[in-house]
Design goal:
The protein contains 17 helices and 27 strands. By secondary structure, the protein is of the alpha/beta class.
């Protein structure tokens, strides 16, 4: 009874940023539709507008929705129904979005998985989500060859990055790939995308069931507060609200504009801000399957995007690239940095670069996390303060609290960032304890998402991000949780203890450094390469430590804990060398 009393007595949340929005914008009622429905509406309103641009191919809205509908019928032919989980493990190719919306049309859930995930990570994700089917890029067959039959997956659909290319480019791509990777066998467990698409011919009856805002749509991946991998369940409502919020904030973005999708589809920012939102607004998404930061300026010249979002290191790569002599960036409207702290020095350098290249765009910042579908705050146009990550998006609320007491702190005081809103995750799949640890009901009667991040709010409601309470490493925009990496390394038979810290890197911002204590009888000189190979098999590439050093013992604090400060100043050679 006490819990219901709390919910009945919700107190108003102070929102000094509300002055930047209308009352209607702040109290937007999410329509009872699905993300498929949003794309369908765009196809009716803008049938001849471009929806997706991939390499040299342009797909119009009217054609995209036809493909999605046919693919959804192929999935239904396989037996996919509401609530089923299907894993998508693809780079930024059209088939990734086509599959997402085709599944959404059936009420199924897309588990968005990193294609560079290690063999064991892929297996565990398939098992933990109980995925019935998998859509995988064909060059990574070897990552599932030995483990797929240990899962519940009934069929793997293989997509080639060449499937959406024109015949000439497809031929060129296929010739270059000869002998580069192991081919999958043609049996009942595996099928090509092209054959799969033809399955719809025997099933042309339209699905009768409609799915709305509260239907689960996507599973993203996060380390939460503890660092162990978790499946974040996101409903349709989160994507629908995000598209509305970003339309309010990016007022100069209009139908026909384009967003450069260099961030991947398995990343909340990439999937929501750079892929779904453009499709919901009649814009188009430029899909980049493999991003080369050294040729960022050339990519800009070729694609001429209206909007781009990336991590600070990517923009640093842009201003250091010199492939194009007369680069004109006048087409840019919005340039957003997220995923890590953008220093004032880099911010000024980037803005100067834009000015030198004929652009009026100014880089701004955003903040978010997977548990809130990535975007929580954003700075755009005149609603911006240098150094801030902007104000809460319309309908989002933020408090800065003392994490030990949940007490709201005064403006300007650093504490933990907590978030309330209509776009929060449903929870972690099959993990009630971690869900309850992150989504907490406060004394004001509202549910707050505890981010584990530090920051402060000024009197106008602008948020200033100051770092992390959790021991997390951000490398090139990817979150790396040391506790997970340590657990993997310590499972090696030669390792007694391991601690991983983040160290500065000139390009990636931070990289991992593993301090390892070996068991008696082992020597670093002989097992270092073996441990590295072990990491390659069990960790995604971006999680693998940049350095491996060996110590007789690790420094401890007076409380007996590992002394991270001493490790950060440790620059000695390996004890075992």
């Amino acid at each position: 009874m006490a819990i219901f009393d709390i919910f009945r007595k919700k107190k108003p949340i102070p929102a000094p940023w509300a002055k930047y929005y209308t009352e209607e914008e702040m109290n937007y009622k999410i329509p009872n539709i699905s993300i498929y429905d949003q794309v369908k509406k765009s196809s009716i309103k803008y049938p001849n507008y471009i929806a997706i641009k991939y390499m040299n191919k342009k797909i119009k809205y009217k054609d995209l929705i036809k493909i999605i509908d046919r693919v959804s019928l192929s999935f239904r032919e396989l037996g996919v129904k509401k609530g089923d989980i299907i894993t998508i493990c693809l780079p930024n190719v059209p088939e990734a979005l086509i599959t997402l919306y085709a599944l959404n049309r059936l009420g199924a859930i897309a588990n968005m998985l990193h294609p560079l995930s290690a063999e064991e990570e892929i297996k565990q994700s398939l098992i933990s989500t109980k995925s019935k089917f998998m859509v995988l890029v064909d060059m990574f067959y070897d990552k599932i060859e030995n483990t797929i039959r240990e899962t519940r997956v009934q069929k793997v659909i293989f997509v080639s990055p060449a499937d959406s290319l024109n015949p000439i480019m497809r031929l060129g791509y296929n010739l270059k790939q000869i002998g580069k990777y192991k081919k999958y066998p043609h049996d009942d467990l595996f099928i090509s995308w092209r054959k799969f698409r033809k399955m719809h011919l025997s099933s042309n009856v339209e699905p009768k069931t409609k799915f709305g805002r509260n239907t689960p749509a996507v599973i993203l991946h996060s380390g939460g507060t503890s660092g162990t991998p978790k499946n974040v369940v996101i409903q349709n409502r989160s994507f629908i609200l995000a598209a509305h919020q970003e339309q309010i904030q990016m007022k100069r973005l209009v139908a026909g504009d384009c967003c450069l999708a260099i961030m991947p589809n398995f990343h909340g920012f990439g999937l929501s801000v750079l892929m779904h939102t453009p499709l919901a607004l009649g814009c188009y998404s430029i899909l980049v399957p493999q991003f080369d930061s050294k040729k960022f300026d050339t990519l800009f010249k070729k694609t001429r995007p209206t909007c781009v979002l990336g991590v600070p290191t990517l923009y640093e790569a842009l201003i250091n690239s010199h492939n194009e002599k007369d680069l004109d960036l006048s087409f840019l409207k919005y340039v957003v940095s997220g995923g890590d702290i953008l220093s004032k020095k880099l911010e000024d350098r980037i803005n100067e670069y834009f000015k030198e290249h004929n652009s009026t765009a100014v880089i701004t910042q955003g903040y978010g996390l997977s548990e809130a579908l990535a975007a929580v705050t954003l700075a755009c146009d005149d609603i911006n303060k240098s150094g801030s990550v902007g104000i809460p998006l319309a309908g989002n609320y933020i408090k800065i609290i003392n994490p030990a007491t949940q007490e709201t702190l005064p403006y300007g005081e650093v504490g933990e960032i907590v978030v309330n809103g209509k776009a929060l995750m449903m929870g972690y799949l099959n993990n009630e304890s971690e869900t309850n640890a992150v989504l907490q009901v406060h004394k004001d009667g509202h549910v707050w998402l505890h981010t584990g991040d530090l920051g402060y709010m000024d009197t106008d409601g602008f948020i200033f991000y100051k770092g992390r309470t959790k021991r997390m490493i951000i490398t090139s925009g990817y979150n790396v949780y040391p506790s997970h990496v340590e657990e993997v390394i310590e499972s090696h038979p030669a390792v007694l203890q391991c601690t991983v810290i983040g160290i500065p890197h000139p390009y990636k911002q931070e990289v991992g450094k593993a301090f390892i204590v070996l068991k008696d009888g082992f020597h670093g000189l002989f097992v270092k390469q073996e441990i590295k190979n072990y990491c390659k098999k069990n960790l995604a590439k971006y999680m693998i430590p940049y350095q491996f050093v060996f110590r007789k013992q690790l420094p401890k604090t007076k409380l007996g804990k590992v002394d991270f400060q001493k490790l950060r100043s440790d620059i000695g050679v390996d004890d075992d060398e």
